[in-house]
Fold this protein.
Amino acid sequence: MAFLVGGANSSAAVAYDIDNSLRFNDGDSPDLGITLGTPSTANVFTFSFWFKLGDWEASKVPFSAGTDSNNFDCMILQNNGKIIFFQKSGGSTTTYLMPNALYRDTSAWYHLVVGVDTTQSTDTNRIKMYVNGSQISSFETGTYCDQNEAAEFNTAVSHTVGTISMGDTHSDYMDGYLADFYFIDGTQYAASDFGETDSDSGIWKPKEASVTFGDNGFFLEFKGTGASQDSSGIGADTSGEDNHLAVTNLAATDQCTD
């Protein structure tokens, strides 16, 4: 799989290669899901994944967690090219981070990392967002949660890859591709833990991560092709924690090498 930034490719050899991605067609209402358990460390977590955009007809949600419409967290790929990290608790918005930058290239792979530690006293340290290795510091909207604010992510609620989860209600299905999907329980990691800049091309590329997953952590390499929630399924967790995700409206034909 070639990883692109702004549509540019690199001929340089890479030490780490991602074999598979997973294709999501929003018309199929696809997702992977799991209800997690008690976290190793509450309110401290990281997620990292590569994505390639599909259609822009509506906003897409590659990752979310929640119990209902008043209590949910999500990552939004908005149909105007914005990326948004959003959290809602008790019916009130607690976090709304929308960078000024636009991400609209449907031919490119983007790498997104969000590291959260709500115990931090400085608000900008509580949630850190990175795209293609660069930490985002310029926001059109930058509302950070309060210190020690409870999150839906990394708690014993429904977590879904490929759609927004509000308990049993799902919407805003992903359209495009996801690859190398990490969820980390208990540590706030940076983009440099998952990727590096190619010395020849200057392009951001994936690397083999050395991370501690925690009890709720999982790693999706999309090696499996089965429909079961186990080690042979499309949502198989290869972190060693056995947090396998259930498969909905995805098939072996959605496993890709792009």
Observations:
- The first strand starts at residue 21 and ends at 24.
- Residues 2-14 have pLDDT under 50 and may be disordered.
- The radius of gyration is 17 Å.
